Amino acid sequence: MKPKSSKRDAGFSLMELLVALVILALIVGLVAPQVLGYLGRARTDSAKVQIDNLKSSLSLYLVDMGRYPSSSEGLESLVKAPPGAANWRGPYVEDGELPADPWGKPYQYELTAAGARPRVFTLGADAAPGGEGENQDVG
After folding, report:
1. Cross-strand bridge partners of residue 121
2. Which fold has domain 15-135?
């Protein structure tokens, strides 16, 4: 013989479901910003690593060519020989292809006026100079 179940044992009350949903919403509200912050930092850290790799490639280019690429030649000279480059032994980047920054844009390249040091950088997620967090310039 089956024991008779009361109406109370039949399932969850509306109040119990609402309390559970409120608790879940609070947890998501506290955890989601932290996860998004980690994602933004990971992209910035990834850009720093890629820029370091590009600078290493530029050092190899300097050893072979005796100079850094001009601003007009840019980073493209790491994958394709510039005109009249007899000593070019590239490509100097892995897979013979320039990486895009973590936000899908090409890295920027400038050669100082004296031609002494190149600058490789990305403008961040907003593609505008300055900014903070994920929008900051890297490099």
Report:
1. 108
2. Glycoprotein, Type 4 Pilin (3.30.700)
